[in-house]
Write a structure and sequence with these properties.
Transmembrane segments: 55-76, 88-105, 177-196, 225-243, 249-272
Helix content: 40-55%
Strand content: under 5%
Number of domains: 1
Largest sheet: 3 strands, antiparallel
Region (Disordered): 1-20
Order of helices and strands: EEHHHHHHHHEHEHHHEHEE
Distance between the termini: 33 Å
Number of strands: 7
GO molecular function: oxidoreductase activity, acting on paired donors, with oxidation of a pair of donors resulting in the reduction of molecular oxygen to two molecules of water
Family: Belongs to the fatty acid desaturase type 1 family.
Keywords: Membrane, Oxidoreductase, Transmembrane, Transmembrane helix
Number of helices: 13
Strand order of the largest sheet: 3-7-6
Shape: globular
Length: 384
C-alpha cells in the first residue's frame, strides 16, 4: 500500500528524561502473516470451553472472597483504619475484575470457545455486570482491530495531527497539566468514550455506543446494540435497588470503587499499548492492515500481567491473531519474536514512568522534516 515497499530509516529519538527509543520499521515487512502464523505451535489456536471457563470461575471466586472480607471485616477495624482498608479493597477487587473484563473482551473476539453463541452469552453477562455495552463495544473494537494505526479509520486513541490539536493543549504541556490530563483520562476516559466517542474516530455526526442508529453501527448490528443497552440498564436498575436497600455509600464502597479501578486500568492498558514514541501511524496513502497491526507495543505490569490474563504483555500477538485464547498468547509471543525481529516492540519501562513519559512526549503526530510526502506520522510534543 502506498510507498510500503520503500526501505525505512530507523532514527533514534531521545529526550533528556527518557532512554533512547528505537523506532519500529515502517517499511513493508520482509515476512508475511502466514510465515508468522507458521512459527506458532498449532495448539495455540485451539479454544477450550473448560479451560476458558476455569479462568472465569477462578476470577469470580477471588472476587467473591474479596467481597466477603470487605463486607464482613472492614467495618470491624478501629478508626481510622477502615478509611485505609477500603481503597486497598478497591484496588485489589478492581484488578481482579479487570481480569473478568479481559475475558469478556476475549468473548468479543470469539477467542473464548468454538461456539459464537456461547462467547456472546458469556461476554454479554460479564460485560453488562461491569456496565459495559457488550455488543456495542464488540463491533467498534472489531473495527479498531481492522484499522489499527490508521489516522483515518482507527476507532480508539486516534492521535491528532499537529494541525488539529486543541488550542489549550500547549497549556497542558507541563507537570500540573499532565497530572490533570492523566486524572481526567483515567477517571472519565472510558465513560466519555462510550457516551461521546471522546478519543475515538471522528464521524460526520454524533457517535455514541448506546445509540443503535449511530454512525458506528450498520443496520444488521442495531438489534444487538439494543440488547447491550438492555443488559447495562438491567444491571443499573439492580444497583439502584441495591442502593435503596443498602445505601449509596455501601454500593459505592463495594461496587463503585472497584469499577473506577477497572475503568482506569482499561484506559491505561489501551493507552500504553498504542501510544509510544517509537510507534508509527499512517494516513490512507501509506496504511495497510499488517503494518498497522504491528504498530503496537507489549508492556510489563509485573505480577498484574497474570491478573490481567497477559493482555498487557502479549498485545502484539493479539493484534495479529485476535481469536487466539489468552492462555496460549505467551507461548505464541515467544514463538513469533524471532520472525518479527525489529518489528516486535516491547517496553519494560515501569507503568507509572511510562504513562508520564507518553503523556509528555506523545501529544500529536506529524511527519518528519524532509519526509512530508510520506504518509508516515510519529508522535511529537514541540509546539514552536
Amino acid at each position: 500500500m502506498g510507498a510500503g515497499g520503500r526501505m525505512s530509516v530507523r532514527p533514534e529519538t531521545k529526550t533528556p528524561d527518557s532512554p533512547v527509543l528505537k523506532r519500529v520499521p515502517y517499511s513493508k515487512p520482509p515476512f508475511t502473516l502466514g510465515q508468522v502464523k507458521k512459527a506458532i505451535p498449532p495448539h495455540c489456536f485451539q479454544r477450550s470451553v473448560l479451560h476458558s471457563f476455569s479462568y472465569v470461575i477462578y476470577d469470580l471466586v477471588i472476587a467473591t472472597i474479596f467481597y466477603y472480607i470487605a463486607t464482613n471485616y472492614i467495618h470491624l477495624l478501629p478508626h481510622p483504619f477502615p478509611y485505609l482498608a477500603w481503597p486497598v479493597y478497591w484496588f485489589a477487587q478492581g484488578c481482579v475484575l479487570t481480569g473478568v473484563w479481559v475475558i469478556a473482551h476475549e468473548c468479543g473476539h470469539h477467542a473464548f470457545s468454538d461456539y459464537q453463541w456461547l462467547d456472546d452469552t458469556v461476554g454479554l453477562v460479564l460485560h453488562s455486570s461491569l456496565l459495559v455495552p457488550y455488543f456495542s463495544w464488540k463491533y467498534s473494537h472489531r473495527r479498531h482491530h481492522s484499522n489499527t494505526g490508521s489516522l483515518d479509520r482507527d476507532e480508539v486513541f486516534v492521535p491528532k495531527k499537529k494541525s488539529n490539536i486543541s488550542w489549550f493543549s500547549k497549556y497542558l504541556n507541563n507537570p500540573p497539566g499532565r497530572v490533570i490530563t492523566l486524572a481526567v483520562t483515567l477517571l472519565l476516559g472510558w465513560p466519555l468514550y462510550l457516551a461521546f466517542n471522546v478519543s475515538g474516530r471522528p464521524y460526520d455526526r454524533f457517535a455514541c455506543h448506546y445509540d443503535p442508529y449511530g454512525p458506528i453501527y450498520s443496520d444488521r448490528e442495531r438489534l444487538q446494540i439494543l440488547i447491550s443497552d438492555a443488559g447495562v440498564l438491567a444491571v443499573a436498575y439492580g444497583l439502584f435497588r441495591l442502593a435503596a436497600a443498602k445505601g449509596l455509600a455501601w454500593v459505592f464502597c463495594v461496587y463503585g470503587g472497584p469499577l473506577l479501578v477497572v475503568n482506569g486500568f482499561l484506559v491505561l492498558i489501551t493507552f500504553l499499548q498504542h501510544t509510544h514514541p517509537s510507534l508509527p501511524h499512517y494516513d490512507s496513502s501509506e496504511w495497510d492492515w499488517f503494518r498497522g497491526a504491528l504498530a503496537t507495543v507489549d508492556r510489563d505490569y509485573g505480577f498484574l500481567n497474570k491478573v490481567f490474563h497477559n493482555i498487557t504483555d502479549t498485545h502484539v500477538a493479539h493484534h495479529l491473531f485476535s481469536t487466539m485464547p489468552h492462555y496460549h498468547a505467551m507461548e505464541a509471543t515467544k514463538a513469533i519474536k524471532p520472525v518479527l525481529g525489529d518489528y516486535y516492540q516491547f517496553d519494560g519501562t515501569s507503568v507509572f514512568k511510562a504513562m508520564w513519559r507518553e503523556t509528555k512526549e506523545c501529544i500529536y503526530v506529524d511527519q518528519d522534516e524532509g519526509e512530508k510526502d510520506k504518509g508516515v506520522f510519529w508522535y511529537k510534543n514541540k509546539f514552536e
